[in-house]
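Pilot study result, target chain (91 residues):
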Amino acid sequence: MLEELVFRGFLIGAFFNASSFWGPIVVSAVLFAIPHMETINIISFLTYAILGGVLGYLFVKTRNIKVSIGLHFLNNLIAVGMMIVQIVMVK
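Predicted structure:
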């Protein structure tokens, strides 16, 4: 929730007007990707930037932070589920 409030709610709301569309999406996507990268490589950057772009698009299109929070939660739930499956399969 905090990431969505910062990268979508605050960043887009504070630095862009309501009529802006692609600018806030691109800026929030890039700024979202940078702290998420474990190593500096293009694949990691693109992975997080695309997710940040989709979340930004949803927020700009709907103007409802709950939508991007829900999708971010679902994304993290799937990632954690895949990690648990890997741990269980190794044992």
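One observation from the pilot: The helical segments are 2-15, 22-36, 42-62, 65-90. A full batch analysis is planned for the follow-on phase.
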